[in-house]
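Usage

Read records sequentially. Each one opens with the input sequence:
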Amino acid sequence: MSIRVQVVYALPDCQTVIDVDCPRMTTVREAIRLSRICSRHVEIDLKKNEVGVYGCKQSLDYVLKDQERVEIYRSLTLSPTEARRLRAKSRQRAKHTKKT
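and closes with the structure output:
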């Protein structure tokens, strides 16, 4: 008997979603391998990229259930703190420019 899962990898401008039929007791690692998504996205490195199921981080050894969605997360280019700091700086600049 098999289960069906989705393996997903999202980029800023597109996402890849692959449906995979796999045996029961399949791990996240095995589902990713069966999806062959790493051949489409060579930048995926499972030693570096975190993975999750429906937005909850999981290990590569997590055993999947039928209809679950495996997500491969990209590394952040900016930390959330740095992004907020840059937005605040930009707003301050715009505010200062309007006054002068």
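Summary fields computed downstream for this record:
- Strands lie at 2-10, 15-23, 51-53, 56-58, 69-72.
- Helices lie at 28-35, 37-40, 80-99.
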